[in-house]
Write a structure and sequence with these properties.
Elements (H helix, E strand, L loop, with lengths): L1 H8 L3 H16 L4 H15 L6 H13 L9 H12 L6 H26 L4
Helix pairs in contact: 1-3, 2-4, 2-6, 3-4, 4-6
Length: 123
């Protein structure tokens, strides 16, 4: 049902890459990126009926990976580093991490998406 809605909302690869990259990035900041990626695989597979999905796999990879920068709980590396920092006497709150993490997420996904558009000749 979701894939049919998505297919009806996007008319080309450019739009589909944009939606998939940003959705997966912000969703990965909340949910672990592996289950999220697994859940989105059927969506992209279903979209293959209407367009070439090769660039969409890259957009999913970009968003899911860079989404781990968004929050303190988004990636296990973030949790480990915050634990080590606290042990060393440097306390970083969730909100402090969120301010820098979300900025990092937005910048890295934007730059990555521009690079993907350039790589696939969409600029």
């Amino acid at each position: 049902m979701v894939s049919q809605y998505m297919i009806s909302m996007v008319s080309n690869q450019f739009e589909a890459m944009f939606v998939i990259a940003w959705f997966s990035a912000f969703a990965s900041a909340i949910v672990d990126n592996i289950p999220l990626t697994a859940a989105l695989i059927p969506l992209i597979h279903d979209m293959s009926a209407t367009m070439d999905v090769y660039p969409l796999w890259w957009a999913l990879s970009l968003g899911a990976c860079m989404g781990g920068n968004g929050t303190a709980i988004a990636a296990s590396a973030n949790v480990v580093v915050l634990g080590v920092a606290e042990r060393e006497g440097v306390a970083v709150t969730f909100m402090q991490f969120l301010k820098i993490g979300m900025l990092t997420l937005v910048i890295t996904v934007a730059v990555g998406l521009v690079m993907l558009y350039a790589m696939f000749g969409m600029l």
